[in-house]
Design a protein that fits this description.
The chain has 335 residues and is mainly α. The chain has helices at residues 2-28, 50-59, 66-76, 95-101, 120-129, 135-142, 178-192, 195-203, 208-221, 228-241, 248-255, 291-298, 322-333; strands at 39-44, 85-90, 109-113, 169-173, 307-310, 316-319. Helices cover 46% and strands 9% of the residues. Helix 10 (228-241) crosses helix 12 (291-298).
Length: 335
C-alpha cells in the first residue's frame, strides 16, 4: 500500500513537472501559429478583462492558447496590470513579450509598411488593417486631395493622388486623419522628387505626371531590378514611334486584381486605361512607384527592343520583332 502511494506521488510530481515545463516553454517560446512575422495592431478597451484580451489575441493569431494566456497572467500577477489603448505586437512574439507589451500602455505611433507598387486601394486596406481608420474614409479623402499642381493630368481620374504616395515605412501617430496621412505620404514623394530628378525629367521632355505614370507601369511590370531599365526603354521607344504600350499591368489595374494570364478578351476591355486599345500613356499612374522604377525611367538605355514577355519565374525576355516575340512566348508557354 505504501509503495503504491509512493508511486502515485511520484507520478503526480512527474505530471506537475511536465506541465510546468510545458508552461514555461509556451511562456518563453516565440509564437509559431502565424505564418510570416508581421505586426498586428489592435485595441484594448477600458474594463476589458484578461480573458477577453486573451480571446482577442488568439483570434488575431498572436497567441496559441487563450487558456495558457490567462494562466500566465495569474502566475505572473499581471491579471490587473494590462492597460487600455492601442498596441502593435509581432505575431511571432513570445507569451512573455506579449504580456510585457500589454503593460507598457498605448502606442503613440503605428508602424505602417507601404510596399512599392501598392495602389491607393491597397494602401487604404493596409491602413485599416493597421488600425488607422476605415478605408472608406481614406479613399473618400483621396478623391479630392491634390496638394501639388503636378498631380493634375490631361484626363479625369478617380484619385489624383494615385501614384504620388511614396512607398516606404511610416510611423503614423495614432488618431491621424486621412488628410494627415495623405499629406505625410505625398510629402515624402515630393521630397524624393529632388531638383536633380526634376531636371532629368524635364530633359526627357516629360512632365512629372507623365514620369510618375510611366514609372508606375514599370513598377507593376518588373519583378527583378535588372529588367526595369529595359522595360522602361521599351515603353519609351513605343511612345516615340506611336505604338500602343500594350502593358498587361494596365489591364490588371482595370480588372482590379493581378490576373496571372491576360486573355485576348481582357485586352478589349473598354477603358481609357487599356493600353492595348489606346496609344500613349494611360490617364494616370496605375500604382505608387518606388525609387528603383523611377530611376529606371530616368536611366533607360537606348534600345531597338519593342517587345517583352515574362517567363514563369518572372524574368523578362526582350525582342525586336513580333515574330521573335511569339517564338519566345511559344518556347516559354507552348502557345
Amino acid at each position: 500500500m505504501d509503495r503504491r502511494v509512493k508511486w502515485i506521488g511520484i507520478g503526480v510530481i512527474g505530471v506537475v513537472l511536465i506541465l510546468c515545463i510545458a508552461m514555461i516553454t509556451m511562456y518563453l517560446k516565440p509564437n509559431s501559429v502565424a505564418g510570416t512575422p508581421q505586426d498586428v495592431v489592435f485595441t484594448v478597451d477600458k474594463d476589458q478583462t484578461g480573458a477577453e484580451i486573451g480571446d482577442m489575441l488568439y483570434e488575431k493569431g498572436i497567441i496559441s492558447s487563450p487558456t495558457t494566456f490567462r494562466l500566465a497572467l495569474r502566475l505572473t500577477g499581471s491579471m490587473d496590470k494590462l492597460q487600455q489603448g492601442y498596441y502593435q505586437i509581432p505575431q511571432n512574439a513570445s507569451l512573455r513579450q506579449v504580456i510585457a507589451l500589454l503593460q507598457k500602455g498605448k502606442l503613440q505611433e503605428i508602424k505602417v509598411i507601404i510596399p512599392e507598387g501598392y495602389t491607393i486601394q491597397q494602401i487604404a486596406d493596409e491602413l485599416e488593417k493597421d488600425g488607422l481608420g476605415p478605408k472608406e474614409a481614406f479613399l473618400e479623402k483621396a478623391k479630392t486631395y491634390v496638394p501639388y499642381q503636378y498631380m493634375y493630368g490631361p484626363a479625369k481620374v478617380d484619385y489624383r493622388v494615385e501614384g504620388f504616395l511614396f512607398p516606404s515605412t511610416y510611423e503614423i501617430p495614432v488618431g491621424s486623419t486621412p488628410e494627415e496621412i495623405l499629406k505625410r505620404m505625398a510629402g515624402e514623394m515630393n521630397k524624393q522628387l529632388t531638383p536633380e530628378i526634376r531636371a532629368q525629367i524635364e530633359a526627357k521632355h516629360m512632365t512629372i505626371f507623365e514620369f510618375i505614370t510611366l514609372a508606375s507601369l514599370v513598377e507593376k511590370e518588373a519583378l527583378f531590378d535588372e529588367d526595369r531599365p529595359i522595360i522602361a526603354a521599351v515603353f519609351l521607344k513605343r511612345l516615340q514611334i506611336g505604338m500602343p504600350l500594350q502593358s498587361c499591368a494596365s489591364i490588371q489595374y482595370i480588372l482590379g486584381y493581378p490576373k496571372p494570364h491576360i486573355s485576348i478578351e481582357d485586352t478589349k476591355l473598354p477603358s481609357p486605361y487599356n493600353t492595348y486599345m489606346h496609344v500613349g500613356l494611360p490617364p494616370g499612374p496605375i500604382a505608387n512607384p518606388g525609387m528603383k522604377s523611377m530611376e529606371a525611367v530616368l536611366n533607360a538605355p537606348s534600345t531597338d527592343y519593342l517587345f517583352f514577355v515574362a517567363d514563369k519565374e518572372g524574368h523578362h525576355h526582350f525582342t525586336k520583332t513580333y515574330e521573335e516575340h511569339m517564338k519566345v512566348v511559344e518556347s516559354i508557354y507552348g502557345e
